[in-house]
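Private note to self, pasted from the team thread so I don't lose it. Backbone tokens:
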């Protein structure tokens, strides 16, 4: 999810999404009301319902926008040169965007991160699959150029990319806070980077 919600062309929609993110981080999904979001967005509750059916609809939109941005950011990172561990860590940060710190430092992090429905939207699953594909292509290109290797890993580039992504999302579920999460990301990037480096 993102705290810089400016993707919608409609400024009212952008204000709604910014307000909703702030409310979800402050109060959690269950305790946030449409009235809270409307007030922070500077509009009436009925006007808010002209844009979204409810707070779940808003949360789904935040997740969709986040993954659309993540995909573009990851593509930009993976064309850079540099040590594999560094590129992987930058890719992790690109996937997270600017929202992860606010989410993990929120007292409601568990509630937001355990909400499955927004993350199983077909467009979100498709974006996740494309990010994984970009990572696999980065590995394939590195192998072809002699910078990376799959020797001894007993796996294809696609399998390694899927494993990297699963590990990245797995550490998020077990992080105590944002600092713990970032430290775990660095360790994961270092392990995969070392394994892949020729």
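Design output:
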């Amino acid at each position: 999810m993102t705290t810089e919600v400016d993707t919608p062309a409609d400024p009212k929609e952008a204000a709604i999404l910014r307000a909703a993110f702030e409310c979800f981080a402050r109060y959690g999904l269950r305790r946030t009301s449409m009235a809270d979001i409307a007030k922070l967005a500077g509009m009436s509750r009925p006007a808010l319902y002209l844009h979204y059916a409810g707070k779940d609809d808003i949360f789904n939109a935040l997740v969709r926008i986040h993954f659309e941005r993540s995909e573009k950011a990851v593509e930009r990172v993976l064309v850079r040169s540099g040590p594999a561990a560094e590129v992987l860590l930058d890719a992790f940060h690109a996937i997270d965007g600017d929202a992860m710190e606010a989410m993990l430092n929120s007292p409601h992090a568990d509630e937001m991160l355990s909400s499955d429905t927004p993350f199983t939207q077909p467009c979100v699953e498709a974006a996740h699959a494309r990010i994984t594909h970009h990572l696999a292509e980065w590995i394939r290109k590195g192998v072809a150029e002699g910078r990376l290797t799959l020797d001894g890993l007993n796996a294809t580039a696609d399998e390694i990319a899927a494993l990297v992504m699963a590990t990245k999302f797995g550490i998020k579920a077990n992080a105590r806070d944002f600092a713990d999460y970032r430290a775990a990301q660095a360790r994961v990037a270092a392990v995969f980077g070392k394994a892949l480096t020729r």
